[in-house]
Design goal:
By secondary structure, this protein is α/β, with parallel strands linked by helices. About 55% of the residues lie in helices and about 10% in strands.
Length: about 260
């Protein structure tokens, strides 16, 4: 046997174990991958799960993925009533899959709303047909709202303190004028108007639509404050401010009292 032939045989004998080992590793890895990837698919669905999957319009593969997801964090933090479509949509693996489940859920919800409305109309019609003389609500059993007690009497007179440039005062003045026929009258005291400045007083009265006849008949009087508010409220009053005079007593009124 030549030396060259002997060298070739030795080379082959040394290389063969390494090649066999490498091939065995690759074969093992492929087998493990195939087994792992098909683990979920090997699980056989029960008859109940197949029916439920069909109801939701999901394939067996989708239903198995839903069950797998519910065994993780989704099943721990979500209510038991969460739908399979929502679970799959929340855990979508790409935008296309997410849009698919979102559309599926939107269609399901829209159809459910339609069914509810149809049944509600049928229920209303059935109620009228079966009980035509019965009211849906027994009004006699509803709580009665306490009757508001009017804090004004015909003999009362109101003292109203206001600024000429005061939107809140204007609103209060409007409320007071609506009650003018219910009371003895209103005494208006304007703040920050110099005594004798009748032009400003008349201009303000005109903007408030105060009828001059009311002033002539003393149903309304226009006055300068001159410290009256501070005296009557012990320096605690802020405009707009309303006092009710009943006999010799004075009491403050709020807008809700009018």
């Amino acid at each position: 046997m030549s030396s060259r032939l002997i060298s070739v045989i030795l080379s082959l004998s040394l290389a063969t174990p390494q090649a066999l080992i490498a091939a065995d590793i690759v074969t093992t890895q492929m087998t493990q991958t195939e087994q792992g990837g098909s683990e979920i698919e090997k699980n056989t669905l029960s008859e109940t799960d197949r029916i439920r999957a069909g109801i939701w319009g999901l394939s067996e593969v989708e239903w198995r993925r839903y069950i797998h997801l519910m065994q993780g964090i989704r099943g721990s933090i979500s209510p038991a009533t969460i739908s399979p479509v929502e679970v799959l949509g929340i855990h979508a693996r790409d935008e296309t899959e997410r849009d698919h489940y979102a559309e599926t859920w939107a269609k399901a919800m829209r159809e459910d709303v339609r069914r509810i409305l149809v049944f509600q109309r049928a229920y209303n019609a059935a109620g009228k047909r079966l009980y035509p003389n019965d009211s849906v609500i027994d009004i006699s059993r509803l709580p009665v709202k306490p009757e508001k007690i009017d804090k004004l009497q015909s003999t009362d007179r109101l003292l109203f303190f206001a600024h000429p440039e005061c939107p809140a005062c204007d609103l209060m003045m409007g409320k007071l004028l609506k009650r003018l026929d219910d009371i003895s009258g209103i005494d208006i005291y304007l703040m920050d108007v110099e005594p004798g400045n009748d032009a400003d007083v008349r201009a303000w009265a005109s903007t408030q639509k105060i009828n001059p006849e009311w002033v002539k008949s003393r149903q309304i009087t226009l006055n300068y404050d001159g410290g009256t508010l501070d005296k009557l409220s012990k320096a605690q009053g802020t405009v707009p401010y309303v006092l009710r005079r009943r006999g010799e007593s004075l009491s403050q009124l709020r807008a809700s009292d009018l």
